[in-house]
Please model this.
Amino acid sequence: MQYYSDIGLEVHVELSTRTKMFCGCPVVDPTVALPNSAVCPVCLGMPGTLPVINQQAVAFAIKAGLALHCTIAERSVFARKNYFYPDLPKGYQISQYELPISYEGWIAVNTSRGKKNIHIRRAHLEEDTGKLSHCNETNDSYSLVDLNRAGIPLLEIVSEPDMHTVEEVRAYSQELRMLLRYLGVTSGDMEKGAMRFEANVSMRASEKAELGTRVEIKNLNSIHAMEKAINYELARQQKILESGGEVLQETLGWNEARSETFTQRSKEEAHDYRYFPEPDLPPLIVEKAWIASIAGEIPELPEQKRSRYQEDMGLPADKTELLVQDKATSAYFDEAVKAAEDISPSTIANWMVGDLFGWMNESGCSIRDIRVNPQELTRLIRFHEQKVVNKNSAKEILQEMLRNGKSAEEIIHEKGLEQISSSDELEKAVVTVLQKYPAEVESFHAGKETVFNWLFGQVMQATGGKANPQKVREILKKALS
Ligand code: ADP
Ligand code: MG
Ligand code: ZN
Model:
């Protein structure tokens, strides 16, 4: 029997504001800051303190909501989500429940089976919890609480269960992260927990049947781990269904070391949280004019860039994908194209994807750190296009530019790498080679045409690779005939 899978994601995104959601504490890098060094009475949940809404967090949420084609609520309401846990100092989390700031959007994703829209149910604002470290020593086991993270603004983006394969889940996750990074609303660093995924997974007998019972999988530390966990869960559920059993609705954890899911708790219902409107905050009212001005700040997004590169510039899909993967890379490309109207965009793309990316991989440099700016790259490409240097020399020159930051012109000059195009010099080189290899010349005349390329190679070698190859071919042909 062929089962049909439905997958919906809840994605928690830390917004890259300077301060926390409801207090003035700085948002600090968890890999650098000392535990409990960025806390105050508000985010420690002291009695008598009051929250104040972070305007920048609201602006980021609106920006993300707009880019996800959501409706932005001009009036949304914060709510208390009550539960006890040691990482939650107040005993409740301020979130949004019935009236989120944005809802009903979609994001287009590309998979091997074509383009598809994944619908967004809602994207709401909330605050992050603290972080627990569980320690197990020989005679003692205890947990440490770090509240630096408590109160960091989160945007929770909830999709519809529109994904049916792991490939779609990967495409959605990557597209979402790329989009949010373009918008500059999050670092998107999963290793630092700035983006965290929870997957809801269910199966049913056919596409026409009602949605099946779902499980929710938590603590997924990477997109890769999420894919493994979903695959594991789909196989587990299929087995249960095939043997006539029922899937239990529950919350699962993912054990990375054992590559299996485990039961964390039976599924809690909304009423378990005793949600009610946050009495310490007024409804959040955002004016149309503000929404419009935020809409005006949205940069060109990956989807628009793709169509510009492919349709307007004629780049192939694979190169386009490499260039749009992050904003800095596509900005570099755009600048290079702007700096050189005489050079075709695909030529620039080839140099970037081949040589520049090669260097970045080898050296570990990001596009922001490399020492060759877009204008300088196009100057080098132009030297090649105008036949001042041949391809091999141009590649070597670029390596050197990347290593020491010198300009193409300087290097060409210093090394005497200018391509030899003078007919006199080339003729001399051809004659020398022909005199040196009379036997080969003879076999060429006897009909062995492949010798031509070998002789051509000899001339190129004799000139240290600096000869203009096209001219060498012409002169060699003439000399041989
Ligand atoms: P909560 O997890 O807080 O109860 P929801 O019920 O709104 O919230 O669902 C959360 C996520 O679960 C959404 O991403 C939604 O798409 C997904 N989901 C809901 N029902 C199913 C299902 N039957 N199979 C797979 N995913 C589902
Ligand atoms: Mg949930
Ligand atoms: Zn604080």
